[in-house]
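Q: Sequence in, structure out?
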Amino acid sequence: MNANNRTIIILILGFLSAIAPFSIDMYLPGFPAIAKDLNTSIETVSYSLSSFFIGVCIGQVLCGPLLDRYGRKRPLYTGMVLYVLATIGCVFTQSVQLLIVLRFLQAVGGCVSMVAPRAIIRDLFPVQESAKIFSYMILILGVSPIIAPTAGSYMVTHYGWHSIFILLTILGVLLIIAVVAGLPESKQPDPDYSLQPATILASFRIVLQQPQFFTYAITGAISSAGLFAYLAGSPYVFMEYFGTSEQAYGGIFALIAAGLITSSQLNNWLLKKYSSQQIVQLTLTIQTLAGMFLFAATALGWLNLYSTIGLIFIYLSCQGFNFPNSSALSMAPFTRHAGSASALMGAIQMGMGALASAAVGLFTPHNAMPLTGIMASCVVLAWILLFFSSRKIGFAAKNVDIEEQALDLIEKY
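A: Exactly. Output:
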């Protein structure tokens, strides 16, 4: 693979991974307008965000085995077409209930664009490069939270919230074209790969029994759930509680996202000196301390708009270190079944995210307490899991052969 092809592939994979976050971030500034237009509350509109997370969670479990059975590109085509059709439906919806359903379908289709890139990275690049490739992808993913809320607030103000879904439809079509023209098939269809439910469930069970996968996939999912809580709760906290405008909210969102991007690129520098395990342990500890202080200071009434932004900035910047390293460590033990492992990791992450975002919506907000409390709880639980489970990890180099042999035995049934 020459340098130009490598760059093109990473760009396509990065933009594919970004379409689902873009579908979230762009419509967040439109919550008040959607609520007003559909005669409902912002809290009810936030359930369309939770349904999106649930759709991604369920969809990833379904598409992972399909990626291993039919190759990487055919499931990508099918999923992206469903995404485009559901997005068109969002343009014309007249009720919040239908919006919630369409967002679920949009997520089921679009989730393959999250699973396939992780599997393709495992197909095309050496294990020791995975964390670096994931960091490059975060640089592209970082475009979403910087551009999307700003673009969304501008479009809501000047063209109405429906225009957001028109733009997402166009982006979906462009991505389909990019996959057709510029992305190689990294894994040929495997007709021997069984799609029997019992076989798939058994494969998932063995993946979960791999200590390295369990520890880092679950730890990464719980810590990132704080990010999903932020996505669900930040429209109320900043626009309603602190009284910022839609444009100001987009700027705040972009500033905080800049921390995530910067830290993801600093991660590449740290990987020259430290292992992924060491980086995760340190940055998760920092994130836990930031989350605990954020909640305590909110409860004591010490925070204003700017100090709240600063603490959330520190908290979410840690994700730029945690995500690429925990993802690489989770995927390292798997080769042939990278699609299923990627799907399970993504499903766990989105499942945790759906729970966190739904939990934010369950509370009647009068201040920032529900949001900061859930953000703090997520990282505290992740920290406890990591430091109590790390002793049990058998690293990938010692476990790949055993894991692959076990999975091959399952496929014979």
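The two ends are 37 Å apart (CA to CA).
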